Amino acid sequence: MTDQTQALTQDEKNMGIVVHVASFAGYIIPFGSVLGPLIVWLMQREIPFVDECGRNCLNYKISMMIYVMISVVLMFVGIGFILVGFLAVLDIVLTIIAAMKASEGICYKYPLSIKFLKTSH
After folding, report:
1. In a domain, 108, yes or no
2. What is the DSSP string of 3-60?
3. pLDDT tens across 49-91, in order?
4. Residues contacting residue 67 through CB under 8 Å, at least 6 positions apart
5. Alpha-carbon distance 76 to 109, whole Å?
6. Residue 120 lies in a domain
7. Total structural domains in the chain?
8. Could you list the residue range(s) of the whole structural domain that residue 63 is in?
9. Nearest to residue 17, comparing CAs of 97, 102, 107, 109?
10. CA–CA separation, 9 and 2 (whole Å)
């Protein structure tokens, strides 16, 4: 937990939630898992909590896209089908956890995330 937790307004926490939940657009729209959080982050990144949540979410979603692409290639040898299923379940579970943490005012650090956008912490 950060010292910032007590200082956050409910609107700031809600925008942190929206950043994470916007990534579910990827299950409907191609590249929506990156575009959803990117749009929210770009619109609200002047809020430090949303900026940190957005960077963490985008790093994770870009990392997941790379992992899925590798899994698609591995489908030619069979194991990719299992990996894609595992990655989909992992993505849903971790995104829900991140949204729940954001509702508590905690910026969730996703595992398996490559740091493309550096965070301030």
Report:
1. no
2. THHHH--HHHHHHHHHHHHGGGGGGTSTTHHHHHHHHHHHHHTTSHHHHHHHHHHHHH
3. 999 999 999 999 999 999 999 999 999 998 999 999 999 999 9
4. 83, 87, 112
5. 32
6. no
7. 1
8. 4-103
9. 102
10. 14
> Token pair 């993505």 is at which residue?
91
- Neighbour-count burial for 72-89, b at 16+ CB within 10 Å, e otherwise: eeeeeeeebeebbeebee
In angstroms, what is the C-alpha Rg of the chain?
15
Burial label, 119 (beta-carbon count in 10 A; 0-12, 13-18, 19+)? middle
pTM of the full predicted structure?
Answer: 0.88
Q: Does any domain span residue 81?
A: yes
The answer to whether 15 touches 40, Cβ cutoff 8 Å, is yes
Let me know if residue 46 belongs to a domain. Answer: yes
Residue whose token pair is 């963490």: 56
Nearest partner of 7 among 102, 105, 101, judged by Cα = 105
Which residue in this structure is represented by tokens 């990719």? 80
